[in-house]
């Protein structure tokens, strides 16, 4: 069987390595430049590859093509692959075919990385043999090739789910839905939502689907989307006979037996993280992890980098890095959890954002808006007349300097951009690292 892998990043190199290890004929092609560490990895493992080129004839002669989630589904090469009716899969689909491990897969518009990391922490803390992968950490395919895990906890994006055929997690979680990546889904919110629901499309009645009962779009889709898996809801608004919910000052899970824990004992801050903790606890209960072990994990879990990450305090002003908030809904949760007057750093590549969702929170909680991007006009125009203090900056150094000059003891500076990072940064991680670097510099470190 001839395997072609498109994309020479973490997932592509992992998929090529797995194919090679399984004795399949493999060729990796990247239209851009491949990073040196990945080139070295491919060379050391005798995997044939090309960069800054696509050998169309060779690619279209494949039996099975594995595509990086970063390649747009409307790209010319992808259209040609579909026209030839060649099987096209994401790395998660490809790797899942070579393991019998139980897969716990997490998707949603916001909270995926936090919840994936939290579930991994719960399983690891209980002594289970577990791997972490998908959109987070190391390549799932490479782990399947080299490590014999009994469980995998995978963060899964809609782009990865677009390219599945048989992918069937033991437990799937759909945390929430909000308008994101609509440019890739014909600006159709329902089309994007249905892509997320594909996480459950191959599940059978011996599998589990954990979902958010408070989420409006999920409710709408569930009315027309048949799910065979056992459905278990969570809610922060209503009490449930089965599932996870808030009961007074506690979170409570009713499943087989009962699990309760005080909300103020959770290591994660904010209402959205109460929902994430409920979802993760349900997964723990399905896997028959005992209550004490789940409680201990929820108390000891460390927040994910770039997601409401406390950087430092300077002269009584807290600096929080929420660079992973690349859409308005993610920033809504961040602003909602702010207790002090907030200097909000926002901006980047707009993905069709509608700022009315955060308008009320900005009125109540934000003291000043510091725009950070090559083009800040849309944000300035929207908040003009609603906020007196609006500043435009075009570098992280400038944004942090302006924010520091505005901050008084008791304030919070929050980087929660609402936007993609690609105008000024390599990715949201680069943006978050630069924020932390400039903040520590401002503190004389």
UniProtKB/TrEMBL annotation:
Every Mur ligase C-terminal domain range: 306-418
General function of this protein: Cell wall formation. Catalyzes the addition of glutamate to the nucleotide precursor UDP-N-acetylmuramoyl-L-alanine (UMA).
Residues the entry annotates as binding ATP: 108-114
Record's keyword annotation contains DNA damage: no
Residues of the Mur ligase central domain: 106-283
Signal peptide: none
Catalytic activity, EC: 6.3.2.9
Pfam families: Mur_ligase_C, Mur_ligase_M, MurD_N
Name of the protein: UDP-N-acetylmuramoylalanine--D-glutamate ligase
Recorded name of the encoding gene: murD
InterPro entries according to UniProt: Mur-like_cat_sf (IPR036565), Mur_ligase_C (IPR004101), Mur_ligase_C_dom_sf (IPR036615), Mur_ligase_cen (IPR013221), MurD (IPR005762)
Catalytic activity, reaction form: UDP-N-acetyl-alpha-D-muramoyl-L-alanine + D-glutamate + ATP = UDP-N-acetyl-alpha-D-muramoyl-L-alanyl-D-glutamate + ADP + phosphate + H(+)
Coiled coil: none
Keywords: ATP-binding, Cell cycle, Cell division, Cell shape, Cell wall biogenesis/degradation, Cytoplasm, Ligase, Nucleotide-binding, Peptidoglycan synthesis
Location relative to the cell: Cytoplasm
Family membership noted in the UniProt record: Belongs to the MurCDEF family.
Gene Ontology molecular function, alphabetical: UDP-N-acetylmuramoylalanine-D-glutamate ligase activity
Biochemical pathway: Cell wall biogenesis; peptidoglycan biosynthesis
